[in-house]
Design goal:
The protein is built from ten helices and eleven strands. It is of the alpha/beta class and about 300 residues long. Helix 2 packs across helix 3 (about 130-140) and helix 5 crosses helix 6 (about 195-205).
Amino acid sequence: MKTSLTTGDEPLVAEETGYEQVFFSASDGLRLAVRDYGRNHSINSTLEPVVCLPGLTRNAADFHQLALHLSQDDAQPRRVVCFDYRGRGLSDWDPQKENYNILTEADDVLSGCTALGISHAAFIGTSRGALIIHVLGAMRPGVLSSALLNDAGPVIEGAGLAQIMAYHDRMKSPRDYAEAAQTLKTLQGGAFSALENDDWEDLARAMYARKGKILAGNFDPALIDMLRAVDLNVPLPTMWPQFDGLKNIPMLAIRGANSALFSEETLNEMARRHNNMQHYTAEGQGHAPILHIGALPQIITDFLKQAET
């Protein structure tokens, strides 16, 4: 397994961004990217680092405000590492499109953790990232000190997946971030009433990258083609055995009150099976809750502290 590590074109410590842009090699040689917040915090700290894993077509920027909150905490600053999976953000696109799967992406996360010297961490996974945490628990359970599952669990609702497909089909190529923010608000404002105008702007800047004169989703379009290939006429596979493998670590499950992907029934069954699981419903948010909104940063901070006691 290759674990070579390089920094990007930015300075090693980018004062203007709050993080270091770092690149590493996956086991197949693909160049992948991570944002490393507060790297020096891990030198003299007993606090576990936090590893953040985004959703299907999302990237490390989704966690920027939360990572700043955790890494710049006055009392207990933490190291926070946020991944761009292959085909997302600043990571290389994979010419072998079949590698866009959670097993390969879980292996990439482990390669990145090795490159960054992280042997044990608290993991935060949004949507697909939560599924990857399930796989990590089977592949290398010792790497997980605790887990936060953001709006995904062992059961993915077909209606929610269909909603995501329809959402991507309706996406346009905006000319600027103001137009992108307005488009996002038009498409998702009903499910995300908790967001203010500035939040929609932040979301647009996290999701889009400039491609010539327009903005486009910051991911390989092949990911959407693979999503459309899912047959929703047959039941989707579940991950209950993998979830049960996580029962020995502290867990927090967050569900968007308006989420169609992560049902209340699944959340309740998770709580029944896992005796050390806290759960929280984010009002005014859908799939998937934005983790720096409202009470969530403090809830996450408190969970991480409790998980280490």
